[in-house]
Amino acid sequence: MKDRPRESTTAGAKARSKSSAAGSKARRRPAALGPLSHYIGYALRRAQLVVFDDFFHTFVDIDLRPAQFGLLVVISQNPGLKQADASAALGIQTPNFVALVDALERRGLVQRLPTQNDRRSHALHLTRSGEALLKRVLIRQAEHEERMTARIGKAGREQLLALLDKLAKHD
After folding, report:
1. What rounded mean pLDDT belongs to the chain?
2. pTM score
3. Which residues make beta-bridge pairs with 126?
């Protein structure tokens, strides 16, 4: 009897996971959501999961998360922006923001430089590697955006952005 090559642990686990997930989907009974389906926050969270799932698949080989992408874009649009101002613009709390910048700095994408008027704060700049990566990422982001737009149509996209902008405004 010939020995069959053993499948890799990872490949085997993935196959078992897929077959198990397929079997459990067939047996699952949909749960009643009650009033949840009428709550804005719940609907936003469900939509965010769909958008983020596509985002992660789009950038899996680059190992880029949405917050990192957002920061690269903001720095690109505002070279020399202080960390506190970038953090506020993105709505990220300071401790989380510092870790975010640290990660991008370790990857050689962002650099902190002292600001001219305040030695206690740092100005953020993209490195050449950061600029090159952002150019590649923006092409993929456009593809990601097209996939999301295809789900709701161009008019739906414009309406959604307008409504979300209204919701996010603080009066």
Report:
1. 87
2. 0.78
3. 110
